Amino acid sequence: MEVIPAIDLLEGRCVRLYQGDYDRSQVFDDNPADVAKHWVEQGASRLHVVDLDGAKAGKPVNLDAIAKIAEAVSVPIQVGGGLRDYASVTTLLGIGVQRAILGTIAVEQPQLVADLCGEFPGQILVGIDARNGKVATRGWLETSEVEATALAPQIASMGVAAIIYTDIHRDGTLSGPNLDALRELASVTPVPVIASGGVSSLTDLLSLLALESLGVCGVIVGRALYTGNVSLKEALRAVGPGRWQDIPPDFGSSAFA
Q1: pLDDT reading at 255 higher than 50
Q2: pLDDT greater than 70 at residue 253
Q3: Is it the case that residue 81 has pLDDT exceeding 60?
Q4: What DSSP line would sit under 92-151, residue for residue?
């Protein structure tokens, strides 16, 4: 299973939010590129970057910081936050980002998601961020009536490379991943699922291995790395490094049998 360090950007700095609350942020470093280099030195094979300002504004805001991260490291980076039109995605992919993460438009403009998947095969991921099972949008500031388990198979049919599932109530809390929700989501989609939110220990990471056969092939870890609750080197020895992008397209499709 691939362990992917998270770098959340707010006003150009590396921060972590508590349950997605912008008013409850903690600054960890003023130089995100240095943070990125640190995680790569510790063995990260991929980085997960979120433009929190962009998620709120509806368009990328921290492009300069993202470009510096892409320039500073040799591993692939995946970036989300405010990607709600064609131009934003193409701009992001043009500054050294390997994969773009879509969120709000998966609910509001599904045809655009399908078009982007067709134009950039293997480079489009969708983040399904759920609050009590319902998909949250617009930087988690709004909650739709769309069930996460209903959205997952729809976007899988569009050709997304993977789904990132975040339980908002667990995010930034160090309370452990929502295994039941992950199991339910992974069972209804044939594409790889990346878990996000709540990881607090190596025990949490090991618990996710039980879901690997369903297609949960990676895990994003944020606060636990920054607080020292989880050592990236130890995590990689325990559960990784994985390579979900090398998994055949039909991996996990037995869920439909």
Answers
A1: no
A2: no
A3: yes
A4: HHTTT-SEEEE-HHHHH-HHHHHHHHHHSTT-EEEEEEEETTEEEETTTTEEEEEEHHHH
Mean pLDDT of 56-69: 95
- Note the pLDDT of residue 197: 86
The token duo for 22 is 């912008």
Separation CA 129–CA 201 (nearest Å)? 22
Residue bearing tokens 């399908």: 114
Name the packing angle between helices 148-156 and 179-186 (round to 10°). Answer: 40
Select from 25, 23, 21, 28 the least CA-distant residue to 7. 28
CATH topology of domain 2-241: TIM Barrel (3.20.20)
88/94 Cα distance (integer angstroms): 10
Q: Give, in order, the Cα–Cα distances in Å from 189 to each of 123, 192, 243, 250.
A: 18, 8, 19, 10
The pair of three-digit structure tokens given for residue 224, joined into one six-digit string: 């636990």
Q: Dump pLDDT digits (tens) for 11-43.
A: 999 998 876 677 788 889 999 999 999 999 999
Q: Which residues carry out catalysis?
A: 8, 129
CB of 189 closer than 8 Å to CB of 215: yes
Task: Write out the two tokens for 178.
Answer: 């929502």
Would you state the structure tokens that stand for residue 204, as one six-digit string? 């949490």
Instruction: Produce one character per residue of 82-107: b if its CB has 16 or more CB atoms within 10 Å, e if not.
Output: bbbeeebbebbbebbbbbbbbbbbbb
Give the residue extent of every domain in the chain. 2-241
